[in-house]
Amino acid sequence: MLRWKNTRMRRHVSTALAAVLVLGSLTLAVPSQAELVKYNLDMEHTAITFKVRHFFSKVPGRFSKFSGTLMIDEENFANSSVKVEIESASIDTNDEARDRHLRSDAFFDVENHPAITFDSTGIRLQGDTKLFIDGNLTIRGVTKAVTLEGEILGFGKMYGVRRGAFEASVTINRKDFNVSWNDVIEGGGFVLGNDVEITLNLEAKKAKS
User: Fold this and answer.
1) What is the pLDDT of residue 34?
2) Is residue 64 a contact partner of residue 43, using CB atoms and an 8 Å limit?
3) What is the pTM of this model?
4) Distance of CA 195 to the CA centre of its chain
5) Torsion sign, CA atoms 122, 135, 91, 173
6) Residue 2 neighbours by CB distance under 10 Å
7) CA distance 209 to 203
8) Residues 6+ apart with CB under 8 A from 54
9) 113-164 pLDDT, tens per residue?
Protein backbone atom coordinates (compact mmCIF):
# COMPACT_ATOMS: atom_id res chain seq x y z
CA MET A 1 0.00 0.00 0.00
CA LEU A 2 2.83 2.37 0.84
CA ARG A 3 4.58 1.53 -2.40
CA TRP A 4 1.38 2.36 -4.36
CA LYS A 5 1.12 5.72 -2.61
CA ASN A 6 4.76 6.54 -3.39
CA THR A 7 4.26 5.63 -7.05
CA ARG A 8 1.16 7.79 -7.18
CA MET A 9 3.00 10.66 -5.52
CA ARG A 10 5.86 10.37 -8.01
CA ARG A 11 3.37 10.58 -10.87
CA HIS A 12 1.78 13.72 -9.39
CA VAL A 13 5.21 15.32 -8.96
CA SER A 14 6.22 14.38 -12.53
CA THR A 15 2.97 15.81 -13.91
CA ALA A 16 3.40 19.04 -11.94
CA LEU A 17 7.00 19.45 -13.13
CA ALA A 18 5.94 18.87 -16.74
CA ALA A 19 3.22 21.51 -16.40
CA VAL A 20 5.72 24.03 -15.00
CA LEU A 21 8.13 23.35 -17.88
CA VAL A 22 5.37 23.76 -20.49
CA LEU A 23 4.12 26.99 -18.95
CA GLY A 24 7.66 28.28 -18.74
CA SER A 25 8.31 27.55 -22.42
CA LEU A 26 5.06 29.28 -23.38
CA THR A 27 6.05 32.33 -21.36
CA LEU A 28 9.39 32.49 -23.11
CA ALA A 29 7.67 32.14 -26.49
CA VAL A 30 5.40 35.18 -25.95
CA PRO A 31 7.12 38.29 -27.34
CA SER A 32 7.78 41.08 -24.88
CA GLN A 33 5.48 44.08 -25.04
CA ALA A 34 6.69 47.08 -27.00
CA GLU A 35 8.47 49.75 -25.04
CA LEU A 36 7.08 53.07 -26.20
CA VAL A 37 9.28 56.03 -25.34
CA LYS A 38 7.96 59.60 -25.53
CA TYR A 39 9.90 62.18 -27.54
CA ASN A 40 9.01 65.86 -27.97
CA LEU A 41 9.88 67.93 -31.03
CA ASP A 42 12.83 70.25 -30.57
CA MET A 43 11.64 73.46 -32.23
CA GLU A 44 15.16 74.86 -32.49
CA HIS A 45 16.23 71.96 -34.69
CA THR A 46 12.98 71.22 -36.53
CA ALA A 47 11.68 72.81 -39.74
CA ILE A 48 8.24 72.46 -41.35
CA THR A 49 8.42 73.90 -44.84
CA PHE A 50 6.45 73.87 -48.08
CA LYS A 51 6.65 74.91 -51.74
CA VAL A 52 3.90 75.87 -54.17
CA ARG A 53 4.05 77.09 -57.75
CA HIS A 54 3.58 80.86 -58.16
CA PHE A 55 3.44 81.87 -61.83
CA PHE A 56 6.29 79.68 -63.15
CA SER A 57 8.54 79.36 -60.12
CA LYS A 58 8.07 77.52 -56.81
CA VAL A 59 7.85 79.81 -53.80
CA PRO A 60 8.96 78.38 -50.43
CA GLY A 61 7.40 79.02 -47.05
CA ARG A 62 7.49 77.69 -43.51
CA PHE A 63 5.58 77.54 -40.24
CA SER A 64 7.48 78.91 -37.27
CA LYS A 65 5.28 77.74 -34.36
CA PHE A 66 4.34 74.11 -33.77
CA SER A 67 4.52 71.27 -31.28
CA GLY A 68 4.70 67.54 -31.62
CA THR A 69 4.94 64.26 -29.73
CA LEU A 70 6.44 61.00 -30.96
CA MET A 71 5.87 57.70 -29.18
CA ILE A 72 8.74 55.55 -30.40
CA ASP A 73 9.51 51.85 -30.21
CA GLU A 74 13.03 51.59 -31.60
CA GLU A 75 12.81 47.79 -31.78
CA ASN A 76 9.64 47.84 -33.87
CA PHE A 77 8.76 51.15 -35.50
CA ALA A 78 5.36 49.81 -36.57
CA ASN A 79 4.30 50.32 -32.94
CA SER A 80 5.31 53.99 -33.01
CA SER A 81 3.10 57.04 -33.56
CA VAL A 82 3.41 60.77 -34.19
CA LYS A 83 1.21 63.78 -33.51
CA VAL A 84 2.01 67.30 -34.77
CA GLU A 85 0.08 70.56 -34.28
CA ILE A 86 1.00 73.70 -36.24
CA GLU A 87 -0.17 77.25 -35.57
CA SER A 88 -1.57 78.24 -38.96
CA ALA A 89 -1.04 81.96 -38.21
CA SER A 90 2.72 81.32 -38.01
CA ILE A 91 2.97 80.94 -41.79
CA ASP A 92 5.98 82.81 -43.19
CA THR A 93 6.78 83.28 -46.89
CA ASN A 94 9.12 86.25 -46.39
CA ASP A 95 6.47 88.71 -47.60
CA GLU A 96 4.22 90.24 -44.93
CA ALA A 97 1.48 91.34 -47.35
CA ARG A 98 1.32 87.85 -48.85
CA ASP A 99 1.33 86.27 -45.39
CA ARG A 100 -1.65 88.41 -44.33
CA HIS A 101 -3.46 87.19 -47.43
CA LEU A 102 -2.60 83.58 -46.56
CA ARG A 103 -3.96 84.04 -43.02
CA SER A 104 -7.25 85.43 -44.36
CA ASP A 105 -10.43 83.57 -45.27
CA ALA A 106 -9.14 83.30 -48.84
CA PHE A 107 -6.63 80.67 -47.68
CA PHE A 108 -6.16 79.31 -44.14
CA ASP A 109 -8.80 81.39 -42.33
CA VAL A 110 -6.68 81.30 -39.18
CA GLU A 111 -9.27 83.11 -37.07
CA ASN A 112 -11.66 80.17 -37.38
CA HIS A 113 -9.07 77.43 -37.93
CA PRO A 114 -6.04 78.25 -35.78
CA ALA A 115 -4.38 74.82 -36.03
CA ILE A 116 -3.16 72.43 -38.70
CA THR A 117 -2.81 68.91 -37.30
CA PHE A 118 -1.41 65.54 -38.28
CA ASP A 119 -2.19 62.34 -36.36
CA SER A 120 -0.60 59.11 -37.52
CA THR A 121 -2.75 56.00 -37.91
CA GLY A 122 0.02 53.58 -38.86
CA ILE A 123 3.73 53.39 -39.59
CA ARG A 124 5.43 50.95 -41.98
CA LEU A 125 9.17 50.36 -42.04
CA GLN A 126 10.87 49.35 -45.29
CA GLY A 127 14.41 48.13 -44.89
CA ASP A 128 16.36 49.64 -42.04
CA THR A 129 15.46 53.33 -42.30
CA LYS A 130 12.69 54.06 -44.82
CA LEU A 131 9.29 54.91 -43.35
CA PHE A 132 5.76 55.27 -44.67
CA ILE A 133 3.62 57.19 -42.18
CA ASP A 134 -0.15 56.99 -42.69
CA GLY A 135 -2.27 59.54 -40.92
CA ASN A 136 -5.00 62.16 -40.88
CA LEU A 137 -4.08 65.69 -41.95
CA THR A 138 -6.48 68.48 -40.97
CA ILE A 139 -6.30 71.90 -42.65
CA ARG A 140 -9.03 74.53 -42.42
CA GLY A 141 -11.28 72.06 -40.63
CA VAL A 142 -11.05 69.45 -43.40
CA THR A 143 -9.48 66.09 -42.58
CA LYS A 144 -7.97 63.83 -45.24
CA ALA A 145 -5.96 60.63 -45.08
CA VAL A 146 -2.39 61.09 -46.37
CA THR A 147 0.84 59.08 -46.43
CA LEU A 148 4.18 60.69 -45.67
CA GLU A 149 7.31 59.10 -47.07
CA GLY A 150 10.16 59.43 -44.61
CA GLU A 151 13.50 58.25 -43.32
CA ILE A 152 15.02 57.55 -39.91
CA LEU A 153 18.18 59.67 -39.84
CA GLY A 154 19.49 58.31 -36.54
CA PHE A 155 19.45 58.25 -32.74
CA GLY A 156 22.05 59.38 -30.23
CA LYS A 157 22.82 61.35 -27.11
CA MET A 158 23.76 65.00 -26.95
CA TYR A 159 24.43 66.76 -23.63
CA GLY A 160 22.99 63.77 -21.82
CA VAL A 161 19.66 63.78 -23.70
CA ARG A 162 18.74 61.08 -26.21
CA ARG A 163 17.57 62.44 -29.55
CA GLY A 164 16.08 61.09 -32.74
CA ALA A 165 16.14 62.68 -36.19
CA PHE A 166 13.73 62.08 -39.07
CA GLU A 167 12.78 63.48 -42.44
CA ALA A 168 9.39 63.14 -44.14
CA SER A 169 7.55 64.65 -47.09
CA VAL A 170 4.18 64.58 -48.82
CA THR A 171 2.50 66.39 -51.71
CA ILE A 172 -1.13 67.41 -51.26
CA ASN A 173 -3.72 69.16 -53.40
CA ARG A 174 -4.66 72.33 -51.51
CA LYS A 175 -8.17 72.30 -53.02
CA ASP A 176 -8.88 69.06 -51.14
CA PHE A 177 -8.71 71.18 -47.96
CA ASN A 178 -10.81 74.10 -49.27
CA VAL A 179 -7.73 76.28 -49.76
CA SER A 180 -8.85 77.19 -53.24
CA TRP A 181 -8.21 80.90 -53.94
CA ASN A 182 -6.59 81.62 -57.31
CA ASP A 183 -6.29 84.29 -59.96
CA VAL A 184 -5.85 84.28 -63.71
CA ILE A 185 -2.57 85.11 -65.43
CA GLU A 186 -2.77 87.52 -68.34
CA GLY A 187 -2.80 85.41 -71.47
CA GLY A 188 -4.23 82.36 -69.69
CA GLY A 189 -3.41 80.04 -66.82
CA PHE A 190 -3.52 80.55 -63.07
CA VAL A 191 -1.28 82.34 -60.60
CA LEU A 192 -1.04 79.44 -58.14
CA GLY A 193 -0.55 75.73 -58.58
CA ASN A 194 -2.71 73.27 -56.68
CA ASP A 195 0.02 70.89 -55.53
CA VAL A 196 1.79 71.80 -52.29
CA GLU A 197 5.05 70.01 -51.44
CA ILE A 198 5.44 69.68 -47.66
CA THR A 199 8.71 68.69 -45.99
CA LEU A 200 9.32 67.97 -42.31
CA ASN A 201 12.84 67.89 -40.92
CA LEU A 202 12.30 66.67 -37.39
CA GLU A 203 14.56 66.40 -34.38
CA ALA A 204 13.01 65.15 -31.17
CA LYS A 205 14.24 64.89 -27.59
CA LYS A 206 13.41 62.06 -25.22
CA ALA A 207 10.98 63.36 -22.63
CA LYS A 208 12.00 63.41 -19.00
CA SER A 209 10.54 60.60 -16.91
Assistant:
1) 62
2) no
3) 0.82
4) 21
5) positive
6) 6
7) 19
8) 191, 192, 193
9) 999 999 999 999 999 999 999 999 999 999 999 999 999 999 999 999 999 9
